[in-house]
Amino acid sequence: MGLFDAIFKNRPKPEGQFTGIFKMLNGYTPRFTSYSGGLYESDLIRAAINARATHISKLKIDVMGSARPALQNKLKHGPNRFQTWSQFMYRLSTLLDVHNTAFIVPVYDDYGQPSGIYTPLPHRCEIVQYGKGENATPFLRYEFANGEKAAIELEYCGIMTKYQYKSDFMGEDNHALLPTLDLIHMQNQGIQEGVKSAATYRFMAQANNFTKSEDLKKEANRFSETNFAKEAKAGGLLLFPNTYTNIKQIDSSPFVVNAAQMKIIQENVYEYFGVNEDVLTNRAYGDAWSAFYEGAIEPFAIQFSEVMTKMLFTLREQTEGNQVIATANRLQYLSNTEKLSVSSQMLDRGIMSINDVREIWNLPPVEGGDERIIRGEYYNADSKITEDTNGTEEGNQGV
What we know:
The chain is α+β, with helices and mostly antiparallel strands. The chain has helices spanning about 5-10, 45-55, 70-75, 85-100, 180-200, 215-230, 260-275, 275-280, 285-310, 315-320, 335-345, 355-360, and strands at about 20, 30-35, 60-65, 100-110, 115-120, 125-130, 135-145, 150-155, 160, 205, 245-250, 325, 385, 395. The chain is about 40% helix and about 20% strand. The protein folds into three domains: about 5-175 and about 275-285, no CATH class; about 200-250; about 335-399, no CATH class. A hairpin with a 5-residue loop joins β7 and β8. Strands 1, 2, 6, 7 and 8 form a five-stranded antiparallel β-sheet that branches. Strands 5-4-9 form a three-stranded antiparallel β-sheet. α2 packs across α4.
């Protein structure tokens, strides 16, 4: 039994045949095909995708509410049997950046009940129609590289998108990035060719006293046999007769874009994926990291939370407060001075507990640390009842 059977063996299987492609409002074919141009093979683009995925993998997944307690208990430990939440979120973010579309499908237990989630990497995905007429149901059908296929009702799966325009369900491809990819590829080729040409020597000479083309051709053949034939014993030394003049070395200067142009190429990649150099080199903290969080991580967390909530809970269960939330402790990315200021100001006012402050400093929780404390000189200004030193309550006389 392979991984496919271990994950999808208990999925419900519709009886009958699919009747064709599900029709979109705009006539767009709901079929997803991955870009085959090697987007993830570029080191710069892979670094940008990795930066986002690494921070997204640190999101904390909370399942709130009382519906489906068995499923909630399993999701607290991980998305499925084979992945942790950090691994799942990293892969999900990577798929979304590479394909601009990421699919989340439920995993079923031996009793046919949802027991987790999984994000497949399909060779091709399409939304097909099962049944005819008013009873037609849209299914998400996906095919893996090994030929295995699976399908599930679209209402039971989740779809995350970026750059969504033409399709009602899926994001656009990354062809807008092709000019930048071509520039990166040509730049790398130029560097490689420059290294190769730097290790070779080329010369140019002028041959005189040849009036016939036949004689010039014979001289060219003789020169090649003398210096470049296998049996030549010149030892790598070119021998020029006295009939050759203007002998000089040819300097090769391969074109490589300058630092300013390369900076523009890098900025194109950074802007496309919503990162910057400080994020890639782990130098972003404080306000810089907060800006990155709000622009790149928070939109992902919101979309993931909404997609997962809609996928796992019915509308009635959602109205009763059942939901999935992905959050991050942004205060961990403050400087030590800022952490100290926040800790002292929030703790003694009862806004944070001891364990909340310890989490900011990446310290483990302690027993009894969830209680909030308030300094003695703070009191409720709106309170109408005060307690005297004898423990009896009396009206507030304007103290």
